[in-house]
Amino acid sequence: MRNATNSRPRWRARVAAALSAAAALVFIQAAPAMADYYDGGMPGKTFSVRYVGVNTTYTTHFNTARSNWNGAGIGVSITTSSSASATMTAGSYTTQSWYGIYTPSCIRACRSFSIQLNAHTITRDSPNVSAWIRSTATHELGHALSLADNPNTTAISLMKHSRDRTAVQTPQAYDRNEVVRIYG
Description:
alpha/beta; Collagenase (Catalytic Domain); 5-stranded mixed sheet; 5 helices; 5 strands
């Protein structure tokens, strides 16, 4: 038979532990979510990319996209290398509705990615094809820097699908601050 005086402190300890756990869950739930973080990004702000099957026009725009991030003043260094596993390409994906798509591979420690730009939809929808290519390529590289689509902000962001692709071609203050927040 259990001693009633010994079970009372255990009961109180169990209730206290349950209340503490519930309070911790409420606190965690109330903490602001980092909804603007994308877990498919590269492990750091320095990486190389290889262009695959693109003409000089796309090469020029891809170089501008890299320069947009490299020149943002936040320590990003995206270089090109013929041996890079990360790739950027463009094609006419006529059955697809997207302008660009970023596809990560492997876990973060060995991460690589593929960026594809859809020349078909960009040409079909754009009043300024060159600007839209630059905006889309820079946006897709933003995913490599762990930025999510459509951030929860009223600020102008390169990562918003609703952005003016003719005007917003470079990382905006919000985007730069997010990269610094994520990578330091």
